[in-house]
Specification:
The protein is α/β, with parallel strands linked by helices and 566 residues long. 50% of the residues lie in helices and 8% in strands. It contains 22 helices and 10 strands. The chain is globular, with a radius of gyration of 24 Å. 50% of the residues are buried.
Length: 566
């Protein structure tokens, strides 16, 4: 079968974390570096191991900066003893462990945050340490009696289980430490820290190299990962949810268009500095799009964007098109009238199978099933320029798989690389190949999650988050207009505002999310808002001193991922 008639398949892996640093640069949560040593490194290794594979790798620029900061801090500590501003990583590095009982408790409890079946249970020594900590936390002073050696072993094992499978299989230091199992020394911890530093310092260069070889396309999300349609017009949420309850005090978000343009331009600048190229494509934060959003992306010179299946379905239904179950309508690019941006839309079934279904399957069976579903699409679709878009989180799914998804991903890339009916490609290559985008006369605003913005607005707590943000933005505008901030001080305040405009905060607010995660993100959001006021030399409002969202639910994957359809 000629290549031009093959089913074009794009695997788009999106990597992002919100800003975890406070105003002093201390990381309040460790997820950036943990996902780097586990997921970002493994995703690069799989592509390196399969030269014929192609994929789109999307980064949020605010994540890129944090990876760089971690690499610099570890190098500084190893070279000259300068501080590491992450409590968990600093404890691994430091020759003297914390002696304060509260610090020791927090350190031990931080090492419990790992998937039990796939990251804890396979390692008997670590499983025993974890069970001991859990037993001791039932007593108010139980952890006072643990030794420094216990904490050292717990710390080392925690970092070992968060290490990517590709590293575990190739690095002799990991093999030795796992075999040693107990009584880790200061030198052992330093050796492990050196490896963490090597990964953090080299992972972005690996993606850059893959891109230069034409094996991946690098794309970006606007700088702070904002929900752009809502910044542009909160009422766009009503297009897919006519009855949504919007925050009463915001209409519209002040200066939203200017803020969206800032996130795009600043994001492009950071991305170009890190990778040496200017991307042509954008995964808008959470696939959130609207007609106005595409217009702004077009003006910025971006050539493609992507969103969710239900966004396209809602849009086509609005024009009166009859949608078939075979979804021939889904497997092609579209272009909204009046813009030059090609839009691709996620196949929810295929994407969610990777995110939620296959983790309990044998890797070979899961990969074979995925490919079989693609073959079915190839055989039933009735046009040559077929493009299947598989888009999902590139970091959170794998801890629910054995060996961090190693067996599934290895087999998947192997099967797809040489398939006679399937061509792995990228969105940019689809455009370069001349695949025609079908005209789209109307776009219903929404995201990849359910085709709506319900994950970020409409709930009492989410709306309260928007109200707090709008209050801070009004204070920002007032101070800027007064001329009190200039130069670097103004740039700092503008950057702090961008952090507060990120999507992750409202993602977590709401009763259906787990209380521990809601507590973390509620606290961090209020801290970021308070720091914004302080950067303006304004007094933070009293309400920022009080939690407002508490959670209590038990969603799938702990709430880190959602399905495309409800």
């Amino acid at each position: 079968m000629p290549d031009r008639q093959k089913l074009k398949v794009v695997l788009c892996w999106h990597m992002h974390q919100p800003e975890y640093r406070d105003a002093q640069g201390e990381f309040k949560l460790p997820w950036t570096y943990l996902h780097t040593i586990k997921d970002y490194v493994d995703m690069a290794a799989h592509l390196e191991a399969h030269p014929k594979a192609r994929a789109v790798i999307n980064f949020a620029p605010i994540l890129l900066e944090q990876i760089e900061a971690y690499a610099e801090q570890i190098e500084g500590w190893l070279r000259q003893g300068s501080p590491i501003l992450d409590p968990l990583l600093a404890a691994l590095a430091g020759p003297v462990l914390p002696q304060n009982p509260e610090q020791r408790r927090l350190l031990a409890e931080a090492c419990l945050k790992a998937n039990q079946p796939h990251m804890v249970d396979p390692h008997p020594v670590f499983a025993h340490l974890v069970s001991t900590v859990r037993w001791m936390t039932e007593y108010n002073r139980g952890l006072d009696y643990v030794s420094d050696q216990f904490l050292a072993d717990l710390l080392v094992w925690y970092h070992l289980v968060w290490m990517g499978e590709s590293v575990c299989r190739s690095d002799a230091r990991i093999v030795r430490l796992v075999a040693q199992a107990t009584h880790f020394t200061i030198q052992d911890r330093r050796e492990l820290l050196e490896l963490v530093g090597e990964i953090l310092g080299g992972v972005l260069a690996r993606y850059k190299s893959l891109a230069r070889q034409g094996r991946i396309e690098l794309s970006m999300t606007p700088y702070g990962h904002p929900i752009m349609p809502l910044l542009l017009d909160l009422r766009s949420a009503q297009e897919a949810m006519p009855d949504v309850e919007l925050p009463e005090s915001i209409d519209p978000y002040p200066g939203g268009r200017e803020r969206v343009q800032w996130h795009i331009e600043h994001g492009l600048n950071v991305f170009e500095r890190v990778f040496g190229i200017r991307p042509i494509g954008c995964w808008p934060s959470e696939g959130s799009v609207s007609a106005s959003t595409l217009e702004v992306l077009d003006q910025a010179g971006l050539k493609w964007a992507a969103s969710g299946e239900t966004v396209l379905a809602n849009s086509l239904k609005k024009t009166g098109e009859n949608l078939t179950d075979e979804k021939n309508w889904l497997y092609r690019p579209y272009r909204l009238d009046g813009t030059g941006v090609s839009c691709f839309f996620r196949d929810d079934t295929l994407s969610d199978s990777i995110g939620f279904k296959y983790s309990n399957w044998h890797g070979d069976d899961a990969a074979a099933n995925f490919v079989s579903n693609l073959e079915t699409i190839a055989n039933r679709t009735d046009h040559d320029d077929r493009v299947v878009s598989v888009i999902l989180d590139g970091e959170n799914a794998w801890e629910y798989y054995p060996a961090n998804g190693y067996f599934f991903l290895s087999r998947l890339y192997e099967l797809l690389s040489d398939h006679p009916q399937i061509e792995l490609t990228t969105f940019g290559s689809v455009i370069a190949d001349g695949v025609a985008a079908k005209p789209l006369s109307h776009l219903v605003a929404g995201s990849w999650v359910y085709g709506t913005f319900s994950t970020w607005i409409g709930d009492k707590d989410k709306n309260r988050g928007w109200e707090m943000l709008a209050d801070a933005k009004k204070a920002f505008d007032r101070v800027v207009k007064s001329g009190r901030l200039q130069g670097r001080a103004l740039d700092h305040a503008r950057h702090q505002l961008a952090i507060c405009e990120g999507s992750d905060w409202c993602w977590w607010f709401g009763d259906y999310n787990p209380s521990t995660s809601v507590n973390d993100f509620d606290h961090l959001y209020r801290l970021h808002l308070s720091n914004l006021y302080l950067s303006l030399h304004e007094k933070p409002p009293e309400y920022l001193g009080h939690a407002f969202s508490f959670g209590g639910g038990e969603p799938a994957t702990g709430g880190t991922m959602r399905r495309g359809q409800a």
